[in-house]
């Protein structure tokens, strides 16, 4: 392994360890020394990769925001089928890569505040709720989804998904629910 590859592996280990500890212990309760010890590496060496705990958090939140691009709607697919397929892929991928559950949880925490401002801004720039409003409207127009305020319906849908992801982060043995159950919240 080249020196550059080793450096990338360490950086990835820091990111994943930071993510796990931020979710399990909380951002404010996690110290840089905790992350360094868990990697393992010296605290001083860790500062060669990330200048601060905040910089590490912001990079993790950026990764989470990048990952949400997979949720972009594919025109021509019925909204209910799109959401069901998206959840099926999300749960399957998260089972293969459990850190996805942690990213979901950390993104939710960053949106609620109490985190560094830049992390909150990045997390809030992800607009899955707003994007889903348009899907719900289209589903209502085609008689697929129940009547109601699309924004409220979207928030309830994504709150359900967030709850599932949080439970699965806490309980790695939990099996993902059938995506149809969550989409049923919206259906007539």
Task: Report what the structure shows.
Helix 4 (53-67) packs parallel to helix 7 (117-125) and helix 6 packs across helix 9. The longest helix is centred in the first third of the chain and has 23 residues, at 3-25. The protein folds into two domains: 3-51, Homeodomain-like (Arc Repressor Mutant, subunit A, Orthogonal Bundle); 62-183, Orthogonal Bundle (Tetracycline Repressor, domain 2). The protein has helices at residues 3-25, 32-38, 43-49, 53-67, 79-96, 99-112, 117-125, 128-141, 150-170, 179-183. The chain is 71% helix and 0% strand. The termini are far apart.
Give the number of domains: 2
- Any guess at the CATH architecture of the largest domain? Orthogonal Bundle
Distance between the termini: 56 Å
Largest sheet data? none
The CATH class label of the largest domain is: Mainly Alpha
Write the layout of secondary structure elements.
Elements: H1 3-25, H2 32-38, H3 43-49, H4 53-67, H5 79-96, H6 99-112, H7 117-125, H8 128-141, H9 150-170, H10 179-183
In short:
It is built from ten helices and no strands. It has 188 residues and is an all-alpha fold. α8 (128-141) crosses α9.
Key attributes of the depicted protein:
10 helices; mainly alpha; 188 residues; Arc Repressor Mutant, subunit A; 0% strand; elongated; single chain; Tetracycline Repressor, domain 2
């Amino acid at each position: 392994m080249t020196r550059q590859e080793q450096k990338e592996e360490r950086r990835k280990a820091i990111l994943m360890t930071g993510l796990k500890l931020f979710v399990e212990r909380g951002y404010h309760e996690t110290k840089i020394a905790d992350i360094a010890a868990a990697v393992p590496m010296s605290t001083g060496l860790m500062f060669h990769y990330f200048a601060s705990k905040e910089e590490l958090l912001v990079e993790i939140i950026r990764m989470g925001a990048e990952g949400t691009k997979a949720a972009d709607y594919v025109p021509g697919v019925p909204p209910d089928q799109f959401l069901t397929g998206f959840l099926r892929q999300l749960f399957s991928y998260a089972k293969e890569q459990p850190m996805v559950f942690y990213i979901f949880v950390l993104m939710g925490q960053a949106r609620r505040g109490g985190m560094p401002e830049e992390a909150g801004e990045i997390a809030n720039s992800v607009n899955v709720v707003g994007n889903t409003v348009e899907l719900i409207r289209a589903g209502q127009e085609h008689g697929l989804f129940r009547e109601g305020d699309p924004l409220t319906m979207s928030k309830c849908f994504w709150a359900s998904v967030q709850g599932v992801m949080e439970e699965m982060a806490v309980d790695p043995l939990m099996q993902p629910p059938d995506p149809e159950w969550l989409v049923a919240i919206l259906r007539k």
